[in-house]
């Protein structure tokens, strides 16, 4: 075999092992016995040790040196770009540190879940301090004298810098706050009332998954405390959750995770088990989940169709017509939980976390002061106080599993989704008529063709620019939100 063939065969095995490690995480979140957590931590650490050893294998630079990159096509060159980047980053992190992070974050997940259930910040604080110390050590190794937070952000959004995001988010925050205050002063839509059987919710939610193009022959829908999508290629799984008083939580969590899953399922199969065979960044990933959930799933056209499906499933549930249902689905409500937030206020939740985790990583905020800092910022941003830790600093799983640098990609994904929605509606003028029939095929096909199939071939911002014809900007998102909620609330 040529040096390129040898390298790609080696990389294929590495990617396959990474998928196995990911499946351990899926199992931990869904069906693993709670008492197995300490052993699972050892298993995850062992897998991370194997993966780290492969990522820093000394044969990789030897293969790279032997390959004539100019003779490769753009796909081959992109494969080498990502392999070279992964090897360089992994080589900066000692193997013992990588294994220790895997062990501690696996165990921390269970400790966080128990602390959240008990509303006991003190029970989680020492573990969180350990995670932060380990991730800061990793960040310092990766930064090699540069900005630690930028180095961590680069894991999730290659090429992004915190200062650039801060400027973008700084443009979002005042406009979102202004619009929210206007909405809160207006007459609110009614709320959904009644009880909705959990099994019936799950039946309808699986229908919604396939309506948005999720291939159940290569996936499955399970329940978890925190909905997520896992895997890539031919095995992409999602989770959701049910609340008998709030079926929208189930339905829109599912549509959101289907956006992630369809991205992975839609990648060109020629990239299977290669560095290009997964979503290029978490920001682009989030753009898919948010456009599925919001611009498509919460549109007036699609909610009209969903109203009929809910009447078929639950009978008369007290909502008189499609327009009322649309207003209920898009109701702006006070609340504490990011994942349950309406799309107008969602980004304010993310910006809070972005600022706090940057302070934690910089050492400007200590774990012992985190709850107070969270509560103060939340009250300043939302106008009311956090009532308990599970609705505040303990609500998210991300910090327990070491995902520092991940949160800003949620808002960046919303920005990308705003850009993509503008281009989609330009290219598919009959979109609303199709959505009103429950037909998402042209919309999801457009996203598959312009975004999903490329996997990791293009850099994140380049991918969005190619898809839309414009550089990413917060302007389309703000325009969409202003128009939608000004109309809904007669502002």
UniProtKB/TrEMBL annotation:
GO molecular function terms noted in the UniProt entry: metal ion binding; metallocarboxypeptidase activity
Cofactor note: Binds 1 zinc ion per subunit.
SUPFAM superfamilies per the UniProt record, alphabetical: Metalloproteases ('zincins'), catalytic domain
Cofactor(s) required for function per UniProt: Zn(2+)
Reactions catalysed, as given in the entry: Release of a C-terminal amino acid with broad specificity, except for -Pro
S-adenosyl-L-methionine is among the record's keywords: no
Sequence positions that bind Zn(2+): 256, 260, 286
Entry EC no(s): 3.4.17.19
Taxonomic superkingdom: Bacteria
CDD domains the record matches: M32_Taq (cd06460)
Family: Belongs to the peptidase M32 family.
GO process terms (BP): proteolysis
Active site: 257 (proton donor/acceptor)
Organism of origin: Sulfitobacter pontiacus
Function field: Broad specificity carboxypetidase that releases amino acids sequentially from the C-terminus, including neutral, aromatic, polar and basic residues.
Keywords, in A-Z order: Carboxypeptidase, Hydrolase, Metal-binding, Metalloprotease, Protease, Zinc
Keyword Hydrolase: yes
UniProt protein name: Metal-dependent carboxypeptidase
